[in-house]
Specification:
The structure is a homodimer of 218-residue chains. Chain A is 50% helix and 12% strand. Chain A has 218 residues and is of the alpha/beta class. The A-B interface holds A 15-19, 21-23, 25-26, 89, 110-114, 117, 159-162, 164, 192-197, 199-200, 203-204, 210, 213-214 and B 15-19, 21-23, 25-26, 89, 110-114, 117, 159-162, 164, 192-197, 199-200, 203-204, 210, 213-214. The first copy, chain A, binds a DNA duplex (30 and 30 nucleotides) through helix 7 and helix 9.
Chain lengths: 218, 218
DNA sequence: GCGAGGGTCAACCTTTTGGTGGAGGAGGCT
DNA sequence: AGCCTCCTCCACCAAAAGGTTGACCCTCGC
C-alpha cells in the first residue's frame, strides 16, 4: 500500500462555534483524517452532506432549525451507508435511543479525550459501531420500559407544561375522563405514581425537551 | 509604550476535554493573550489559580468535584480582584444570578464567536463587565421574583423529586400542615398554581439541578 | 371474522392537593 | 421593648387528581 493512503473524509456538525472550531482544528492535524465540511445547524448539515458525501459525520443532537436525529434520518433515507457519530452532552435517554434507532453508529459524550474521538472515527469508518459502556447501560435500562402511545405522549407533554386535566381535555379536544385514562396508563408505563413524577421523568429522560417550557407558543 | 506589551494571562477551566483543547488552541494564537493554565474540575481550578494568578479566568459552571459558582466564591474570597468570565451553555437563570452574585464579570454562552470571546476577555481585563442582552433580559425577569426561604427550597426540592406531602413531612420531620404552608407560599413566589408547575419551574430555572434526579442517594 | 391495541367516554370512589384563616414560638434588627 | 420574618402547626373546605370497572368504536393484522 502507498504512503498516500486514503484519508477519512469527515463532516463536523456542531452549533457551538468555538467547539466546532476546536474539533476541526483538532481533527485536521490528525494523520489520515480530513475535515471536508462544517455545519452549524441541521439544514446546513444536510446541504453539506450532499455536497461532500463524507465517510463519517460527527454530529451534535441539539441543533438549530433541525435536530440531529432528524438529520440522521433524512440523510440515511437517501444515503443508507452514511455513518454518523453522535457527539453530545447527555440530553436524556430518549435522544440516545432515537439517534441509534435512526442509524447512528456511535455515541460519544463530549468530555471524551481526543484519542477516543479519533479512535472512534476510525472504528466507525471501518464499518463497526462504538457505544461506550455508560451509554449501553442506559440503553439496557430503557429496554424494559414500554413505549408510550402517541396520545399518551400528547398528554404527557401537556402535564409537563403544567396543565390540569381539564385544560388538557380542552387542549386535546377530548373529555376529562379520557385524559384520566391516558394518565393512568402512562403513569404505569413510566413507573411513577403521580403527574409530578411523570413530568420530571419526562424531562429527565428527554421525552419532552426542556426548551419547550420557556415560552409556550400558545 | 513598547511593542513588547504585557500579555493577558488567562486560565481556562472546562471539563469537556475537546472544548478546553479548542479554547486553549484558539486563544494561544491570539496576540496579547497567553493561556497560563488549564483545569478540568473545580478543585484543580483553585489550585491552578493560586499557582498562576491569571488576569482573567474563563470558567464553565458545570464542573466535577466543585461547581463553578463555588470556585468563583472561594477564589474571590482570597483574591477579590480576580476576574472571571463565565462560559457555559444555558443552565437556568439561577446559575446566571448566582455566578454574577459571586462576582463573575461576564457571562458568555457557548456558541458565541471567537471574536466575541476575545473581545470580552480584553474588556474584562480592562476592568469592565460584559453581560449579553439575552442574559441581561433573564436577569431582569428574575428581579421581580421573591426569594424562596431555606425551608421552602427544601420542600421544593422534595416536590421535584416526586414526593407527596406526607412523604415530605416525614423526610423533613415536620407536620403535613407545615408542608402545605410552605408549598402554598412557594407556589405564590414562583408564580405557579400547582406542584407540577413548581417542579418544572424549579428544573428550568436551575433551582434544583437535573442531575439530582437520576438516582436519589436515599 | 376475530382478536389485539388504541382511543374515546362514564360512573363511582378515595386520596391528595390547594386555599384560607388563625396562632404560637424563635431569632434578628431597630 | 416592638417589629419582622421564618418556621411551626391546626381546622376546615373545595377542587383536583388518582384508581377501578366497564363500555363502545376504530383499524390493523392474522
Amino acid at each position: 500500500m502507498s504512503v498516500e493512503q486514503e484519508k477519512i473524509r469527515v463532516l463536523v456538525v456542531e452549533d457551538h462555534h468555538v467547539v466546532r472550531q476546536g474539533l476541526v482544528a483538532l481533527l485536521n492535524v490528525v494523520d489520515g483524517i480530513d475535515v471536508v465540511g462544517e455545519a452549524a445547524d441541521g439544514v446546513e448539515a444536510i446541504t453539506q452532506f450532499r455536497k461532500h458525501l463524507p465517510n463519517v459525520t460527527l454530529i451534535d443532537l441539539r441543533l438549530p432549525r433541525m435536530g440531529g436525529v432528524d438529520v440522521i434520518q433524512r440523510v440515511r433515507m437517501e444515503t443508507p451507508q452514511a455513518r454518523f457519530i453522535v457527539l453530545t452532552t447527555y440530553d436524556g435517554d430518549e435522544d440516545i435511543y432515537r439517534a441509534l434507532q435512526a442509524g447512528a453508529k456511535a455515541y460519544l459524550l463530549k468530555g471524551m479525550t481526543s484519542d477516543e474521538l479519533i479512535a472512534t472515527i476510525r472504528t466507525v469508518h471501518a464499518g463497526k459501531s462504538h457505544i461506550p459502556p455508560a451509554i449501553a447501560q442506559r440503553l439496557a435500562e430503557r429496554m424494559g420500559t414500554e413505549e408510550l402511545t402517541p396520545r399518551e405522549s400528547d398528554v404527557l407533554e401537556q402535564i409537563v407544561h403544567g396543565k390540569s386535566n381539564k385544560e388538557i381535555a380542552t387542549e386535546l379536544e377530548i373529555s376529562e375522563a379520557t385524559v384520566k385514562t391516558h394518565i393512568n396508563s402512562l403513569l404505569g408505563k413510566l413507573g411513577v405514581t403521580d403527574r409530578t413524577q411523570a413530568a420530571t421523568a419526562a424531562i429527565q429522560r428527554g421525552i419532552v425537551p426542556l426548551e419547550s417550557l420557556r415560552k409556550p407558543k400558545s
